[in-house]
Design brief:
- The chain is built from 10 helices and 14 strands.
- Helix 3 (98-108) runs parallel beside helix 5.
- It has helices spanning 48-55, 76-79, 98-108, 114-123, 137-149, 167-182, 194-197, 218-221, 240-244, 281-286, and strands at 8-19, 22-33, 37-41, 63-68, 71-72, 83-86, 155-159, 186-191, 203-206, 214-217, 225-232, 249-257, 264-273, 294-298.
- The chain has a 6-stranded mixed sheet with strand order 6-7-8-3-9-10, sandwiched between helices. A 4-stranded antiparallel sheet has the order 2-1-4-5.
- By secondary structure, the chain is an alpha/beta fold.
- Mean pLDDT is 80; it is low at 1-6, 274-278 and 289-314.
- The chain starts with 7 loop residues before the first strand and ends in a 16-residue tail after the last strand.
- Helix 6 (167-182) links the parallel strand 7 and strand 8.
Length: 314
């Protein structure tokens, strides 16, 4: 176990998970410090929930290790004494009422602040007299959030926690995160929307396609930008290997061919802006021979790595 693991809420070293031939998580090295709100961001299917299941001991890692406050994640009994968990898709016991479910979760968890729990029930406008089988997705989410925030847990692991909540309840959620920080709790918050997490997270990790590509404070992340560029050509097609060697360029792919001559006519590449003097897009295009006649810019806001501050054009 690394020496730092005893002081950090979460630490993983080389954490890897394969499902058959599918590599779901690729050598994740991650440290979440005690007391911080950490956003774990990536598109759907990027490996976020797989990571959480590994942290909870629900899966056995193909390779690597993970610790929760110094306890191996595989030792679920020890690790779970320190955490409360809200899954992405909350399933409750349909015959129990909301109140009975909250009491059951309190009895099997690390402890509960019942006064705070009653306050949260009011703030989330949760009808605890109803059976859980009659609850909507949003109400099931409220039950799980109330149980987690009221728990005497050092670590809150929240997987897409605002799914199904209306904007007013999302505001209550942010208040609860602030209260957790005031109580020196650690929050590990998984999501695929950076804009929604900007108000609550202190640091963010970016996980596209199972590989951690960036960990930064939000102030630093705002200076990062990845833009997808589609370029169409007439004449001789450029050398893709040469383009891949240009600083700031990655993910170079051929997109289409001319139907008559079967020659490539369009390519796509990613161009990254960062803190280290990025190569201007015009200079990149000038390295292509022949030069592109037309350039289309696009950014996928659902992929956090492609995020740019709202209201700012490419």
């Amino acid at each position: 176990m690394p020496a730092l693991a005893t002081r950090d809420a979460i630490q993983t070293v080389g954490l890897t998970e394969r499902f058959g031939r599918t590599l779901a998580l690729d050598q994740l090295d991650l440290t979440v410090e005690a007391g911080e709100v950490f956003g774990f961001l990536g598109p759907n299917g990027a490996g976020k929930s797989t990571t959480i299941r590994l942290l909870l001991g629900h899966l056995r890692a193909t390779a690597g290790q993970a610790w929760i406050f110094g306890h191996a994640s595989g030792d679920a009994a020890a690790a779970h004494r320190h955490l409360a968990y809200v899954p992405a898709d909350v399933a409750l016991w349909p015959a129990l009422t909301g109140a009975e479910t909250l009491e059951l979760l309190a009895n099997i968890g690390p402890g509960i602040d019942r006064r705070y729990r009653d306050e949260l029930v009011q703030r989330f406008e949760l009808e605890v007299d109803r059976r859980c089988g009659t609850y909507s997705t949003g109400n099931r989410q409220k039950v799980a959030l109330v149980a987690a925030f009221a728990a005497d847990a050092q670590l809150l692991i929240l997987d897409e926690p605002t799914a199904g909540l209306d904007p007013l309840m999302e505001q209550q959620f942010r208040h609860c995160i602030a209260a957790a920080v005031a109580r020196s709790q650690t929050v590990f918050l998984s999501s695929h929307h950076l804009a929604e997490r900007e108000a609550v997270c202190q640091r963010v990790g970016i996980l596209p396609e199972g590989r951690l590509v960036e960990v930064a404070e939000l102030s630093d992340l705002r200076r990062l930008r990845l833009t997808e560029v589609n370029v169409s050509f007439r004449g001789t097609f450029p050398d893709l290997e040469q383009l891949s060697e240009v600083p700031g360029v990655s993910n170079v792919h051929q997109l289409s061919r001319c139907w008559a001559c079967h020659q490539p006519r369009m390519l796509t590449f990613s161009r990254r802006d960062c803190r280290t003097a990025p190569l201007p897009l015009f200079s990149i295009l000038c390295r292509l021979r022949p030069r592109g006649r037309r350039c289309q810019w696009s950014a996928d806001l659902l992929n956090p790595l492609l995020w740019r501050p709202p209201g700012r054009s490419p």
